[in-house]
Amino acid sequence: MKKQNNTKKKKNVKPKDSNREFYRIMYLFSGLFLLLCGYLCYFLIFESREVINNPYNLRQETFERKIVRGEILSSDGEILAETLITDNGEEARFYPYKEMFAHVVGYSQNGKTGLEQKYNFELLTSDIPFYEKLYREFMDIKNPGNQLVTTLSVKLQQAAYEALGEHRGAVVVLEPSTGKILAMVSKPDFDPNTIVTDWERLINSDSADGILLNRATQGLYPPGSTFKILTALEYMREYPSAPENFSYECNGIFSYNNAEINCYHGKSHGNLDFIGAFEKSCNGAFAYMGSDISISDFYDLCESFLFNTELPFPLAYKKSSFLLTEESEDWELVQTAIGQGKTTISPLHNALITATIANGGILMQPYLVSEIQTAYGQQVKQYLPSVYKRLISPEEAAALTKLMTSCVTEGTGYALLSDSYTAAGKTGTAEWDEKKESHSWFVGFAPAENPQIAVSIIMEEAGTGSDYAAPAAKKIFDVFFSDKKK
């Protein structure tokens, strides 16, 4: 008889993993470390320059004690800003062209603006040979800072400055195929050489005249009839046969429900086709178009043209606004269609829209600096043209070019007629105060068949675009093409 074995078999028990919590903590801190490294790399690549350029960053003082601020040059090598040594041995920033480049180049005392601010880090960086840096350090001599070679043309800047005359306003000139800013003028202006002694006067008058404001990028105005370019585009999108079949009988007044639009001085244009409405800049015809298009589609079109959004531009600017919605009242709808209402735009933004059309529907990234060099002229960094975005199709750009060319040859842009080139453009007369004269606008490019230059001009309280801004644009075009012949 076998003896019963009452001993129970023991179950196999896995040993407890005492290192599990340790691994979790190790993974957590490793992940945090990688995130920290990633953010540090991001900061050094994308954010460090902005932090260094901040006027409250005391590190700038360290740079200034060791480096002589570099020069700013025009595209043809003219000095726009340099640092000189005064009789008492102190450094002083000098601007040879005084008021002419005041807003775009900026100033570097009592704060910094313009290119002086945006490229402060580059101007206070020295890339001369290392052995020379060592020698200068040993001899207690400052290193020369890098210099900026801008895209700005002295001849075109002078032409734009003189074309604006005594009027307050702004001019932007650019090359549509590359995005190079060739000239940028704002008035009223100031002398950056005397910014310190003139500071109180400039600040006290700034609220009234906005002397320190760069109107080219920070001035916001009703676009007037220059906006009819976008109204025409939206109408063509919704009614593709419009260029051939559109017809409107203008008697000087257009009524839409409770809203009424008058043509300039109540002028009656008679029977107009689509191109005729654009040539004559007929308010009634474009108010009619505005009443017959989709507001939501119009809104989307304007946002695609960078209204209510950021512009691809390096200097300080203000965003343009397009506020028309389905809830807007009738008066705002028809006023918006002719470039009035609540819509506002900067001269820079109007220039970008114009350049997009001139470049076959592609907006190039606008830029002001073509190259960074050492103090001895060796290249450190080069900025090349780059595409920002295609905004419209080549066919749409061609259709708008046809309208804008006809505006010059047969319509309100007659002041641009020339034997040397064919211009395309649109005049604008923007009403903003019933008791004051209208703002004068012109946007356009030339040659119409192969655009090389685009302009945007506003002259505050000057009058009609035909009488003031368009002739100013012609002066700039004439200088540009006369220089091309040489």
Structure, described:
The structure is a single chain. The chain is α+β, with helices and mostly antiparallel strands and 486 residues long. It has a domain at 225-343: DD-peptidase/beta-lactamase superfamily (Beta-lactamase), CATH 3.40.710. It has helices at residues 20-53, 59-66, 102-105, 114-118, 120-123, 130-138, 154-164, 199-209, 215-218, 228-238, 242-245, 274-280, 283-291, 295-304, 330-337, 347-358, 394-410, 465-485; strands at residues 67-68, 72-73, 79-85, 91-94, 143-144, 147-150, 169-174, 181-187, 248-250, 253-256, 259-262, 270-272, 362-364, 369-373, 379-382, 387-390, 424-430, 439-446, 453-459. α7 (154-164) runs antiparallel to α18. The longest helix is centred in the N-terminal third of the chain and has 34 residues, at 20-53. The protein is globular.
Quick rundown:
This protein is 39% helix and 18% strand. The chain has 486 residues and is an alpha+beta fold.
Name the CATH homologous superfamily of the domain at 225-343. DD-peptidase/beta-lactamase superfamily
Helix content: 25-40%
What is the CATH T-level topology of the domain at 225-343?
Beta-lactamase
How much is the radius of gyration in Å? 30 Å
Beta content comes to 15-25%
Give the count of helical stretches. Answer: 18
Compile the SSE list and pairings.
Blueprint: H1 20-53, H2 59-66, E1 67-68, E2 72-73, E3 79-85, E4 91-94, H3 102-105, H4 114-118, H5 120-123, H6 130-138, E5 143-144, E6 147-150, H7 154-164, E7 169-174, E8 181-187, H8 199-209, H9 215-218, H10 228-238, H11 242-245, E9 248-250, E10 253-256, E11 259-262, E12 270-272, H12 274-280, H13 283-291, H14 295-304, H15 330-337, H16 347-358, E13 362-364, E14 369-373, E15 379-382, E16 387-390, H17 394-410, E17 424-430, E18 439-446, E19 453-459, H18 465-485
Parallel strand pairs: 1-5, 2-6
Antiparallel strand pairs: 2-3, 3-4, 6-14, 7-8, 7-19, 9-12, 10-11, 13-16, 14-15, 17-18, 18-19
Helix pairs in contact: 7-18, 12-17, 13-15
